[in-house]
Amino acid sequence: MSDNIIYSCNNVEAMVNSVKANGDIINNMLKYTKSNDKEINNILSDYAKVKKNIGNEQIDMYRAYVENKENIETTLKEYRQKIEADNAIHYMSLELNSIDSDYSKLHKIFEDINKLQVKVMEMLCGLLNKSNLLLGSL
Question: In the chain, what are the domain boundaries?
Answer without folding.
Answer: 22-137
